[in-house]
Amino acid sequence: GAGVSQSPSNKVTEKGKDVELRCDPISGHTALYWYRQSLGQGLEFLIYFQGNSAPDKSGLPSDRFSAERTGGSVSTLTIQRTQQEDSAVYLCASYQKGRAHGYTFGSGTRLTVV
Amino acid sequence: DQQVKQNSPSLSVQEGRISILNCDYTNSMFDYFLWYKKYPAEGPTFLISISSIKDKNEDGRFTVFLNKSAKHLSLHIVPSQPGDSAVYFCAASASDYKLSFGAGTTVTVRA
């Protein structure tokens, strides 16, 4: 597609439930990133996929968070046993190496844990 | 560990005047700096960038200045327009392409 697509755009879930967030990056972009923005905070790095290399998971806040990228394209971020502090906007971005303009972000998924 | 800091959470400026947004960083390995603009309910969009080998980059109404010795960069918007009202994020990266973002500055342009 022309841009990075994320779904759902909004998700309200009960504490303790699992959620899956989806990201469709720009076709041909080899790198994919997940960030999150909590209320009043900057963008917090979560995880980074680059081609077939092992992902950089250094930003994942706990082992309740995991992500995968299938076939080098679509990525799913899974949060197990959600907590209220997981409430945030989760942003996905893709990147084409060598381009000077950095990432292209999706519109994000607003997750609310009640 | 916040490696990129935007110490002003908000800025209000009159239409037609200059907006100056500031950003400081701590990691001397950063060699590429970007500014992103974000409207509500949308993802951040790229605005302008600068490589560490330069000290100024200009694109229309937007100019970014880099002072490496002070580990400081700024974004100038002149003249400011109502459509510039948004949240502006400063970001920086080293060779690994992973961006570190500041907390953002909310700009409000008054008519």
Write a structural description.
The complex is a heterodimer of chains A (114) and B (111). With 114 residues, chain A is mostly beta strands. Chain A is 0% helix and 46% strand. Chain A is built from no helices and 10 strands. In chain A, strands 2, 4, 5, 8, 9 and 10 form a 6-stranded mixed β-sheet that branches. In chain A, strand 4 (31-37) and strand 5 (43-50) form a beta hairpin. Classes of the chains: A mainly beta (114), B mainly beta (111). The A-B interface holds A 4, 31, 33, 35, 40-45, 48, 50, 56, 91, 93, 95, 97, 100-108 and B 2, 4, 6, 34, 36, 41-46, 49, 89, 91, 93, 97-104.
Question: Notable features of this structure?
Answer:
heterodimer, A: 114 residues, mainly beta, 6-stranded mixed beta sheet, 10 strands, 46% strand, B: 5-stranded antiparallel beta sheet, 11 strands, 0% helix
Broad shape of chain B: globular
Q: What portion of the residues of chain B fall into strands of 2 or more residues?
A: over 45%
First-residue to last-residue Cα separation of chain A:
33 Å
- Average of per-residue pLDDT values of chain B: 94
How many distinct helices of chain B? 0
Helix content of chain A: under 10%
- Compute the average pLDDT of chain A: 91
Q: Most extensive interface, residues per chain?
A: A-B, 26 and 23 residues
Major sheet size, sense and barrel closure of chain A: 6 strands, mixed
Q: Would you report the number of β strands of chain A?
A: 10
N- and C-termini, Cα separation of chain B: 38 Å
